[in-house]
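Q: Can someone sanity-check these two? First one:
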Amino acid sequence: MSELSPRRRLLVLAICCMSLLLVSLDNTVLNVALPSLQRDLDASTSGLQWTIDAYTLVLASLLMLAGSTADRIGRRRVFTAGLVVFTLGSLLCSLAPNLEALVAFRMVQAVGGSMLNPVAMSIITNTFTDPRERARAIGAWGAVVGLSMAAGPLVGGLLVDSVGWRSIFWINLPVGLAALVLTLRFVPESRAPKARRADPVGQLLVIALFGSLTYAIIEAPHASLSTTVPFGAVALASLVALLRYESRRHEPLIDLRFFRSAPFSGATVIAVSAFASLGGFLFLSTLYLQNVRGLSALEAGLWMLPMALPTFLCAPLSGRLVGNRGPRLPLLIAGGAMTAAGLLFALFEAETSNATLVVGYVLFGVGFGFVNAPITNTAVSGMPRAQAGVASAVASTSRQLGQALGVAVIGAVLAAGVDSSSYAESFTEASRPGWWILTACGLAVLVVGAATSGRWARATARRTAERLESAEIREAAGADA
């Protein structure tokens, strides 16, 4: 891809951010609509979990395939197809007659969404070649997540209260169509110099691993051991088979050599932990504010602003810090703030007091605002540019898998402890183990971030990048011969 003018680069960044707004806004809006959806479709707690996790699971399962496919056949081509499918899926969701259809249409949405985020990040990585410019661009990208968290609850609450939960999917239609037109007009086509072959076996193993693991967790409170244990066994067998198969494949779906880089491995663990915390935090907060406190969807959205606004404000600051000083400080701030927020709820029942509830939301918003930029920058900065699509897809997969697991685990803990006959009275006590789990996730961000952002970790990243580039050179020479 030829060098673009500064103005054109900013325009490409804005278009890519529109795609992220589509995908992330859809999740935050839906969280606010969960209680209304629960009443209208007579959904159980596990049914609510599936409306979120069907989407995130399909995303997590297909992101790496989308990233490698975009590197192979063209990033703009795949990105355009993703916008079309996502917009169509949103229309279908707004027409869903029952919970089962909604879950199926959410999966259609996710197929399109899988072609957006990792491909957009790959486009950004190849557009902004200067490391500092790239870090700032990724910081702006991360700010869009904060924007979706700020706008999502308010827009979703207003739509749910005035029109109904189906209208939350309508907002994707004009944004998706506008992004499609702008992409066709302004985003240049690009692809990796050497195309990677498809890996259908690896893809099927990833789907089996993610799907069976999540199913076993979500259904554990309701199903018998004879139902959930086989799914757990399938997940374990799929993991073992995936590691063995991918390590022997010449062009794997998941290049296990990436994980020799300590910062890349750390970014993967941090992404899973941080987004598991986000998924669980939103799930608990939404149900508490509306089902326990009895607030409307709009009122619940207003209460979540103390979490959303710090995320929006801290994300670009985190990007600048990563560009100027590296990822260590943002990760320490993120882990410390998220851990403190979890402890406030787990130890002091922060949700039962207005003042502590606001403090807990602010702390979590600060932590999550600082965590996104170092994850993305670390995942792609140490890799050869030709591998940008695959590397960013692994980072995106980690995010979506983390969010799916967070909703699955926290929802399962809540379902096992809450008493349906006295929901409001039992919710606070039933949610206590969930808050401890979220505290552990924040602590993981803090500890792993500190351990994988030092000099020795950067040295492993350099060695990994050199080995990957040397391997590419040898493979290219062999092909020419």
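And here is the second, same format, sequence then tokens:
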Amino acid sequence: MTTQAVQGTVAEGFEAVREEFAAFVATERPDYEGQLCAYVHGRRVVDLWAGEGAGPDALYGVFSSTKGAAHLVVALLVQDGTLELDRKVTYYWPEFAAEGKGQLTLRELLAHRAGLIGTDTGFSLAELADDRQIAERLADQRPFWRPGTAFGYHALVIGALTGEVVRRATGRTLQEVYEERVRAPHGLDFYLGLAAAHEPRFRPTQPMEPTPKQQALLDALPQGPHTLAAIAFNRHVEVPTDLELLPNDPVVRAKGPASAGGVASARGLAGMYAAALSELDGKAPLLKEDTVAEFGQIHAAGYDLVARGHKSYGLGFQATADTWHPFLGAGSFGHSGAAGSQGFADPRSGLAYGYTRRRFAFPGGAAPENGRLVKAVHKAALAR
């Protein structure tokens, strides 16, 4: 159990959120570090942290929560008319047609329906850090199921695939568009490519330390090197990818691959979704209501061939209410990250949420504590 004190502030009416966070932190390891932030209708109402080194400006690897930033860029470009969801990917990227992928639409790609979860021979760490290299390899790859007929989590590659569409359509990388249109205008501490000046703020991810019971559950999972999960997480190569330590590589942080290479604080995560949904700092919402509805609508739901269980996806985003928190409003959209981070927007309550933690949580994905923290924040938001 930890003796770490919870620091930060909450708005009137959100005192119970602080109490819930403190109760959780009290049960954690002494070295726990984490941050919790939330906005309601563009106003920051929760700004908490706990743990030595976990101040509000600390930055953490947020793994697949990065996908939320990546696909906010896609949503903006669709809203502009630069991208069209029902055009074939090959309209933007002709080489993608190889090996029977020519009929796939951008809408299907965003919903993890491409069957293009990795390559037969896998990626090096240098390739995983570079979206252009991933895209080039995947253009020639035969899909692992017939595109459009099923779906499965494109864990380490979806941002490279959609990012290549962005690059072909705009002449700029997804990371460049994100910096110009999302991060910089709002001063968000959520980076797809961490500048050297911010490196001292980065807190390296600590590996999971499962209990014996938890380790037994992990050991019971199918571990074959040629399973879809192994291919999707690049574990079928001679030196399997150590997902837990991916953001600790300085090249990954510097390049910010759009599937899992982002670095953020909870303020950055929540602030991005607040900017997407609401007026923030005097600036209009990034997304119009119709765009929010389109990207938050469920486009793939049921058995995920990679995750081996029920999952739901909108367009590039997870359908947060169906996958994680059923008490949220319909159309909630966001993304979780392997170490335990989570960020999302709930259009019906105006809630934007962000959570980070330093140590990789069991069993991966949104850390279990998000359930109780989100419920407390949502209850307070509805009571306003």
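A (reply): Looked at the second one. The two ends are 33 Å apart (CA to CA). The CA atoms of residues 85 and 106 lie 5 Å apart.
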